[in-house]
Design goal:
The structure holds two protein chains of two kinds.
Chain A: H1 2-8, E1 15-21, E2 26-32, H2 38-51, H3 56-62, E3 66-68, H4 75-80, E4 83-88, E5 91-96, H5 125-135, E6 141-148, E7 154-161, H6 167-178, H7 188-195, E8 207-209, H8 212-220, E9 224-228, E10 234-237, H9 241-245, H10 255-284, H11 292-301, H12 309-329, H13 332-352, H14 358-373, H15 377-415, E11 417-418, E12 421-422
Antiparallel strand pairs in A: 1-2, 2-4, 3-5, 4-5, 6-7, 7-9, 8-10, 9-10, 11-12
Helix pairs in contact in A: 5-8, 10-14, 10-15, 12-13, 12-14
Chain B: H1 2-15, H2 21-27, H3 33-56, H4 63-70, H5 73-105, H6 112-127, H7 131-158, H8 164-171, H9 180-187, H10 196-199, H11 214-234, H12 245-251, H13 263-291, H14 308-327, H15 330-360, H16 365-374
Helix pairs in contact in B: 1-7, 1-11, 1-13, 2-9, 3-9, 3-11, 3-15, 5-6, 5-13, 5-14, 6-13, 6-14, 7-13, 8-11, 9-15, 11-12, 12-13, 13-14
The chains are: A alpha+beta, B mainly alpha.
């Protein structure tokens, strides 16, 4: 065995291969020193072998940490995953001794809540599964493992409640996970992208989340969790659009509070997508839309602006998008400086210089703030994008263009399916005596 | 599912405010329109009941499949082409009519074909989606628009500007004999059921349509409002001087505290959504009828991929609509509308009677098998 492994890892210096002896046995041990926890190796293999308190062949057979590994083709794989291989009397065993470097105290940073659980998933798969299992103590929770990436060989785990899951969805997800072809898989978002039929999809059809409470509630609703080694974000699927608009806290607060917050978010969604487009359409085509006083005050604030409304909108949007992008990417210390400088320019200066109207500044900031109200980051990115087509429609067709564009967006949303399930649909209490529409498909 | 049927019913009924139904009715307001309304309510309800009970016997099957169970192939092909034409014409006519209206009222500085271009492209996109998608779309659009429409109607009825005397005066012409065109225009309110022709394919086997008493209730409510409210606003004589009488009626209402003062804008945007929805659904059904001309074609209610032929047929519909724009103006449209409304009524009543009679025949074994297969 050692010979074969040395040939396979010819130039790797961190592959340790030992031949050890005690009074009864000669054993061969192989592992990659940089991947394993060496204290584990010595505790589990080297010390018991040397002490001989129990015959070592019996120890290998009885201790559940050691699993027989017969197929020589899987030696390299196992070594690369941090297993120790032990050969004794021509039988080969493997033992998991992987040492994984991860973020030590995972706290929710992306989807923070005020009173909900503060702990996020870990970058180590085992810790994450532990968190989910401890929140969902049901024997029906099943786990299936896949390996994705021809080079990275990332472990991907699918979790579901076998009683509540929809078998059709399960089958689709399995098929997708098996058919992924890539060299290196490095993040959950990438995994989500690979699992989509349509790479050019505009809205996320799966939720990328770090919250274990969201995941355990999802499990109870028959959803599937896909997690990968090395990322603290899990995928939850299939979802509907309203899932992306709900924060976990909605379930913890009283009904009316949640209702208020939820409607607030939907209004924000509508505003952030349509406000710039409506501004152009109203200013350039239909100023008579507003009542006379308001129309006058808008026209008055635009008096010093020397170009058409859409250039004004482009200037402001360009600036605000740069500001948002800069404050996300910059290190924290410089980030605050950037926002201060940007805020100064966007606030008073641009308007006093006569570059944009003061109404436009309000429109831009309302748009930006509304965008931050959307609780799921991937959705808020998509929403940032869709205002641009609407602006184009507003430039060329005015109000009917904007309304038509919103309608086209509605068609697009309705035509989406999340792993075979309807994505954008009103959910009303289901009457169990009747089947749903289209549930019976003609052959 | 019950609610989808009523969405489609309300959609068609509401849309008539904007189409030519009020113009046709108001023109004959002293020569038989009032009594025609009553006849239309009776006739429309009757047809709606007949069609819904006929279609309920074939859950999971659309009209093409039902016809194929009983009739020889050449009759089926003729009927299907006729239906496809009817659906295409009705929805394209609504689209072109609304584009003309919108162009006249909201964006007079844009050329009309420019507007039709963008609206038509959206309709192509909508009509090529799957039937399931269109039902979801219908639900979403109706849920978003019905509150606004109710608000407009409420505002209209409660307004102090309504001259109820004028309405009473016209109502007294109820003794005049009904006329064909008015009855035809009136029954158009009730034609929401025709969307079952294709969408019946999505109904599950244990589907029962409940609450059919809503049909006469909603239908007559909307029909009477369509006819009488403009009279209340504009008076008995002035009411037929308007080209788009309901647009002017909406423009007569004001929201004195809203930052949008004129109700007209709400009305136009809501009807834009309704027209796009109606045209998408109409074209979609026309496309499905054309598809099912081929006997061996299996329909799919929730396909993820759009067949290329759908795109082609949709584009042809669009091209025809754009072409019609070049020689249609408001006067011609109104003349066509009158003929069209009558023609449509005969086809619809005929189809309804045919379906009703067919549903009484014992289904041949093939029908049972087909129903069983789809179950």
């Amino acid at each position: 065995m050692l010979q074969a492994i040395r040939e396979r890892f010819a130039s790797a210096t961190d592959v340790k291969t030992h031949r050890i002896t005690n009074s009864r046995f000669i054993a061969e041990v192989a592992f990659i020193a940089t991947l394993v926890d060496e204290s584990k190796v010595s505790d589990m293999v080297l010390v018991p072998f040397a002490k001989e308190e129990v015959p070592f062949d019996e120890l290998l057979r009885r201790n559940p940490n050691f699993q027989p590994l017969d197929d020589p083709a899987r030696w390299t794989d196992s070594l690369l995953r941090g297993f120790v291989l032990v050969k004794l009397n021509s039988a080969i065993y493997k033992m998991d001794a992987a040492r994984i470097i991860r973020n030590s105290t995972p706290e929710t940073t992306v989807e923070s809540t005020i009173e909900g659980p503060q702990i996020a998933l870990s970058e180590d798969l085992m810790d994450s599964i532990n968190m989910i299992r401890s929140r969902y103590a049901s024997p029906d929770l099943l786990e299936e493992e896949f390996t994705v990436g021809s080079l990275s060989k990332t472990r991907v785990v699918m979790l579901y409640d076998q009683v509540r899951v929809d078998p059709a969805v399960l089958e689709i997800v399995r098929l997708k996970l098996r058919s992924i072809q890539t060299d290196v898989l490095s993040a959950s978002g990438q995994l989500a992208k690979f699992m989509n039929d349509n790479r050019k999809r505009l809205f996320p059809v799966e939720m990328v989340t770090e919250r274990s409470d969201r995941l355990s509630v999802g499990l109870s609703k028959g959803k599937i969790i896909v997690m990968m080694q090395g990322s603290m974000f899990a995928l939850l699927l299939p979802i509907v659009f309203t899932d992306l608009m709900s924060a976990t806290e909605d379930r913890y607060e009283s009904f009316w509070t949640s209702l208020l917050l939820l409607s607030l978010r939907f209004i924000a969604l509508l505003m952030t997508t349509t406000l710039p487009a409506l501004y152009i359409a109203v200013i350039s085509y239909n100023p008579e839309l507003f009542r006379a006083q308001l129309a006058f005050s808008i026209a008055g604030s635009r008096a010093s602006v020397p170009y058409p409304s859409f250039i004004e909108v482009f200037i402001m949007l360009f600036m605000i998008e740069m500001l948002v992008e800069a404050s996300v990417r910059l290190p924290k210390y410089i980030g605050s400086t950037a926002t201060t400088v940007g805020g100064l320019i966007l606030g008073q200066a641009a308007q006093q210089a006569g570059l944009v109207s003061s109404i436009m500044i309000i429109v831009t900031s309302v748009m930006a703030i509304s965008n931050f109200v959307i609780p799921v980051y991937s959705l808020s990115l998509s929403v940032r994008f869709i205002k641009y087509p609407l602006i184009a429609l507003a430039i060329f067709f005015g109000l009917p263009g904007v309304a038509g564009g919103v309608f086209a967006g509605l068609i697009y949303l309705c035509s989406q399916r999340s792993f075979g399930k309807p994505y954008f649909r009103l959910r009303l209490p289901i009457d169990w005596r009747h089947a749903d529409i289209g549930e019976v498909k003609a052959e | 599912m019950n609610r989808y049927f009523y969405y489609s019913f309300i959609m068609v009924a509401m849309l008539n405010l904007m189409l030519y139904v009020p113009s046709v009715l108001l023109e004959e307001r002293m020569t038989g329109a009032v009594s025609s309304l009553l006849v239309a309510i009776g006739l429309g309800t009757l047809t709606a009941y007949a069609v819904t009970s006929a279609m309920a016997r074939y859950p999971g099957l659309g009209v093409p499949e039902i016809l194929r169970l009983y009739l020889p192939e050449w009759i089926v092909k003729t009927l299907l082409s006729l239906f496809a034409f009817v659906f295409f014409f009705a929805s394209s006519f609504a689209l072109v009519g609304y584009t003309l209206l919108l162009n006249r009222v909201l964006t007079p500085d844009l050329p009309a074909w420019n507007l039709l271009l963008v609206l038509g492209l959206i309709c192509i996109y909508g009509s090529t989606r799957s039937s399931m998608t269109l039902l979801f779309l219908m639900e979403m659009t109706m849920v978003l628009t019905i509150p606004v429409i109710l608000f407009i109607l409420f505002k209209g009825i409660r307004s102090p500007d309504v001259a109820w005397n004028a309405i009473y005066t016209i109502a007294q012409y109820v003794t005049v004999r009904p006329t064909l065109t008015s009855v035809a225009a009136g029954t158009f309110i009730f034609t929401g059921y025709i969307n079952l022709a294709i969408f019946n394919r999505l109904n599950p086997p244990n589907f029962r349509l409940k609450g059919r008493w809503l049909i006469p209730l909603l239908g007559s409510g909307i029909l009477l409002t369509t006819f009488f409210l403009p009279i209340g606003y504009h008076g008995t004589m002035a009411v037929d001087r308007y080209m788009y009488v309901w647009t002017q009626t909406a423009d007569s209402m004001t929201m004195s505290f809203g930052f949008i003062e004129r109700v007209l804008f709400l009305f136009l945007l809501v009807y834009l959504a309704l027209t796009l929805l109606y045209t998408s659904i109409g074209w979609h059904q026309a496309i499905e009828f054309i598809h099912s001309l081929r006997k061996d074609r299996k329909f799919e209610v929730d396909s993820t991929e759009t067949p290329a032929s759908s795109w082609w047929i949709g584009s042809i519909f669009f091209a025809l609509s754009v072409a019609s724009m070049f020689f249609l103006d408001e006067k011609l449209t109104l003349a066509v509308a009158e003929i069209w409304l009558t023609f449509r009524m005969f086809i619809e009543q005929g189809a309804a009677a045919l379906l009703f009679l067919l549903s009484f025949k014992r289904p041949p074994d093939a029908a049972k098998e087909a129903a069983h297969d789809s179950a």
